[in-house]
Amino acid sequence: MFEEFIDFHNTGISNIIGYKGIIENYITESYLNNILPNIDSWIGYGKDDPSKTEAALIRHVFNHLMDKISLEIPDCFAEEFYIYPPYDDNLHTGSVITGKR
């Protein structure tokens, strides 16, 4: 059991998730450096449709996270780009399909 914990810890997941994790730091950095300076635009979008603005902010932050991580650690694994198992039966970017559907 201890060996399984070590293997899990060695994935780095404990470093990226949590209050002091890498993701939290990148989100804070994205907010301070990118969202806050443009807050008037985001507030304007929120007046039209708050749910669309929230989704846009999530995409915006994720784009910043991807860019930041790609700059710092450019090596990738194929599994990073596929959603498996899929959320639904629709085809999306990164969907893995076979000859029969």
Overview of the molecule:
The chain is mostly helical. It is built from five helices and no strands. The chain has helices spanning 2-10, 13-16, 22-35, 39-48, 50-72. Helix 3 crosses helix 5 (50-72) and helix 4 runs antiparallel to helix 5. The longest helix has 23 residues, at 50-72.
How far is the first residue's CA from the last residue's CA? 40 Å
On the 0 to 100 scale, the average pLDDT is 79
Give the radius of gyration: 18 Å
> What is the tally of beta strands?
0
Provide a concise account of the structure shown.
The chain is mainly alpha-helical and 101 residues long.
List the helices and strands and how they pair.
Elements (H helix, E strand, L loop, with lengths): L1 H9 L2 H4 L5 H14 L3 H10 L1 H23 L29
Helix pairs in contact: 3-5, 4-5
Question: Which key features would you list for this structure?
Answer:
mainly alpha, 101 residues
